[in-house]
Amino acid sequence: MSNMPKKAKAWRVLLTTTSFQDTPGPHHQLLESTGWEVQTERGPLPEERMLELLGACDAVICGDDDYTAAVMDKGLPRLKIISKYGIGLDRIDLPAATERGVAVAYTPGVNHTTVAEHVFALMLGRMRNLVEEVNCTRTGEWKRITGNELCGKTLGIIGLGRIGGEVAVRAKAFGMKVLAQSVEWDKEFVERIGIRMMVDVERVLSEADIVTLHLPLTSDSRNLLNAERIAMMKSGALLINTARGELVDRDALVEALDSRRLAGYCADVLEEEPPPFDHPLLRHPGCYITPHIGSRTMENVERQARRAIENVAAYLGGHSDQAVLANARELKTSEAAQEQERG
């Protein structure tokens, strides 16, 4: 990498993402080659812990820690960049970061394959009762449960970005019909793959046998699937969520599962991670819950880690144009305004 900071510069970097730390691979050698002083913690970390850690760090490579305005204030004046290892920025107060001149980097375009594959791992597992069957054989039982095929089923995709698009490609390979609703989409891709775009979420919910969520968490999307919208879904539908737990109203979901209006809920995300022991979805017979591992493959960890390191290296090395920043334009506007005020 051409723009790595010189080893003579003792940048101090906090690393909190656990899959980066726990997965072997060349990203460890790459991080070591920077010459940075690296402090490791095991995230996701709450605001209280972040307030204890920041203040002596130039940069952070993070997962889903809480980066509030108070945390950033504690990091100043030394904190220069928060490098998200991943794409979800809902735990980072982006306006607060911009206001304080802190760059926020992320890693788009690296995890769409691995998350899409995880969607189908959940989908196939639930449709064919794989967890139940494996648990039976492990205890010496030979219990055969009749499952369902994917072929011929209608898949509804809410959010047709990179991940949603990869899910659509795989769905077509399984012989599924694909509906989608999205704020933006690639018209050429939609026509080539054969996706029927719907005007609103409600149409997707009412027609799909399986619904999968692929959109960011915002004030508008929080509890997108509330009791009213869940009631619009087909009786016996399957809901899959690998985006954010807060997209679904948990109480309404549990009620729909208890009444068997929904056949199942497969999720890689919860509204609280790690969840409390008594979280109602963990042991619900209609649920398959995995511990946020959708992007945790050997191949993707290396991709995400490399991109996260490169973003920090580029920014600290004075090459901000080579870092993938979520607030690049806003930072430039803010800097220009401050320069004008000084002038």
Structural class: alpha/beta
Radius of gyration: 22 Å
Helix segment count? 14
Q: If strands are numbered along the chain, what order do they take across the biggest sheet?
A: 8-7-6-9-10-11-12
In the predicted model, the low-confidence regions spanning at least 5 consecutive residues are none
Number of domains: 2
For the biggest sheet, the summary is:
7 strands, parallel
CATH topology of the largest domain: Rossmann fold
Cα shape = globular
Number of strands: 12
Helix content: 25-40%
Oligomer: single chain
Mean pLDDT: 94
Q: Which descriptors would you attach to this protein?
A:
Rossmann fold; 12 strands; 14 helices; alpha/beta; five-stranded parallel sheet; 2 domains; about 350 residues; seven-stranded parallel sheet
What does this structure look like?
With 343 residues, the protein is an alpha/beta fold. It has 2 domains: 12-110 and 297-342, NAD(P)-binding Rossmann-like Domain (Rossmann fold, 3-Layer(aba) Sandwich), CATH 3.40.50; 112-289, Rossmann fold (3-Layer(aba) Sandwich). Helix content is 38%, strand content 14%. It has 14 helices and 12 strands. It has helices at 18-22, 26-33, 47-53, 69-75, 94-99, 112-127, 130-138, 162-173, 187-193, 201-207, 227-230, 250-258, 298-316, 328-342; strands spanning 12-15, 37-40, 59-62, 81-84, 103-105, 154-158, 177-181, 196-197, 210-213, 237-241, 262-267, 287-289. It has a 7-stranded parallel beta sheet, sandwiched between helices. It has a 5-stranded parallel beta sheet with strand order 2-1-3-4-5. Helix 2 (26-33) packs parallel to helix 13 and helix 6 (112-127) crosses helix 8 (162-173). The protein is globular and about 60 Å long. 41% of the residues are buried. The mean pLDDT is 94.
